[in-house]
């Protein structure tokens, strides 16, 4: 079974430019997460979807970040305009929420460098 | 919200020795504690997890212990091998949807 797929794996852009990341979760997983991981730190949640609904976006910098999950499957995360401080790894994860709990699985990440 | 602290931040062991990484959490309602291994250039991979209704879980050379009273949990790796070298993250979850991660431990196994 395929895992969480992300693209692009690496992206270098100049500041003020836009960038978009795409995520395809594990088939059948209803919950999708976008995390940001700064160098030497643990992942920090940006947004969580349950099916098509964004149920937790409290940590998403809404002035420049946006996300969508059309049809409750794939998702995109966009940054416009990018700032130097946005350089990080953007991790997508998915899970199947059941009554007994939840295990999340991460993709390989999209490594963003803003210059 | 939940606060997860992890230590040490770096750990070096000789091949064959054991490694222990410890995490504490603040919210007594947390009930699920996964551990992830992240190799350079890759995403975190789940290696073991434990739920609050058990005190210990083992999978070959890896074990996790949980002390709910003290609100801490630990990862134990025995007979370490060079391929165990990676960054390890602990996490705690209250609702099963919100996960709070530690800051990571960089483990180096010296051949």
Briefly say what this structure is.
Chain A is mostly beta strands. Chain A has strands at residues 5-7, 10-13, 19-24, 31-37, 44-50, 53-56, 65-68, 75-79, 88-95, 105-106, 110-114.
Describe the structure.
The complex is a heterodimer of chains A (115) and B (111). The model of chain A has no long low-confidence stretch (mean pLDDT 92). In chain A, the strands form 2 sheets. In chain A, strands 2, 4, 5, 6, 9, 10 and 11 form a 7-stranded mixed sheet that branches. In chain A, strands 1-3-8-7 form a 4-stranded antiparallel sheet, with no helix packed on it. With 115 residues, chain A is mainly beta. Chain A has strands spanning 5-7, 10-13, 19-24, 31-37, 44-50, 53-56, 65-68, 75-79, 88-95, 105-106, 110-114. Chain B has strands at residues 4-7, 10-14, 19-25, 32-38, 45-51, 56-59, 62-67, 72-77, 86-93, 99-101, 105-110. In chain B, strands 2, 4, 5, 9, 10 and 11 form a 6-stranded mixed sheet that branches. In chain B, β4 and β5 (45-51) form a beta hairpin. Chain B starts with a strand and ends with a strand. In chain B, 32% of the residues are buried. Chains A and B meet through β5 and β10 of A and β4, β5 and β9 of B.
Strand content bin of chain A: over 45%
Compute the gyration radius of chain B: what is it? 13 Å
Distance between the termini of chain A: 37 Å
Tally of strands of chain A: 11
Keywords:
heterodimer; A: 115 residues; mainly beta; seven-stranded mixed beta sheet; four-stranded antiparallel beta sheet; globular; B: 111 residues; six-stranded mixed beta sheet; five-stranded antiparallel beta sheet
What are the SSEs and their pairings?
The complex is a heterodimer of chains A (115) and B (111).
Chain A: E1 5-7, E2 10-13, E3 19-24, E4 31-37, E5 44-50, E6 53-56, E7 65-68, E8 75-79, E9 88-95, E10 105-106, E11 110-114
Parallel strand pairs in A: 2-11
Antiparallel strand pairs in A: 1-3, 3-8, 4-5, 4-9, 5-6, 7-8, 9-10, 9-11
Chain B: E1 4-7, E2 10-14, E3 19-25, E4 32-38, E5 45-51, E6 56-59, E7 62-67, E8 72-77, E9 86-93, E10 99-101, E11 105-110
Parallel strand pairs in B: 2-11
Antiparallel strand pairs in B: 1-3, 3-8, 4-5, 4-9, 6-7, 7-8, 9-10, 9-11
């Amino acid at each position: 079974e395929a895992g969480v797929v992300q693209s692009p794996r690496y992206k270098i852009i100049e500041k003020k430019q836009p960038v978009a990341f795409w995520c395809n979760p594990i088939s059948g997983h209803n919950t999708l997460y976008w995390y940001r991981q700064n160098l030497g730190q643990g992942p920090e949640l940006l947004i969580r979807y349950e099916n098509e609904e964004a149920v937790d976006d409290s940590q998403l910098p809404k002035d420049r970040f946006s996300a969508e999950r059309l049809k409750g499957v794939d998702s995109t995360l966009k940054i416009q305009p990018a700032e130097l401080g946005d350089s990080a790894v953007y991790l997508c994860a998915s899970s199947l929420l059941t009554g007994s709990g939840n295990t999340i699985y991460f993709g390989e990440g999209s490594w963003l460098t803003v210059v | 919200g939940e606060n997860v602290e992890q230590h040490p931040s770096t750990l070096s062991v000789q091949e064959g020795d054991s490694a222990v990484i410890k995490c504490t959490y603040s919210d007594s309602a947390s009930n699920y504690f996964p551990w992830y291994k992240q190799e350079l250039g890759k995403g975190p991979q789940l290696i073991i997890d434990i739920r609050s209704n058990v005190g210990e879980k083992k999978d070959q050379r890896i074990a996790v212990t949980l002390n709910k009273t003290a609100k801490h949990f630990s990862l134990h790796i025995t007979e370490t091998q060079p391929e165990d070298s990676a960054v390890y993250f602990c996490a705690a979850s209250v609702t099963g949807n919100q996960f709070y991660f530690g800051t990571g431990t960089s483990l180096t196994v010296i051949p």
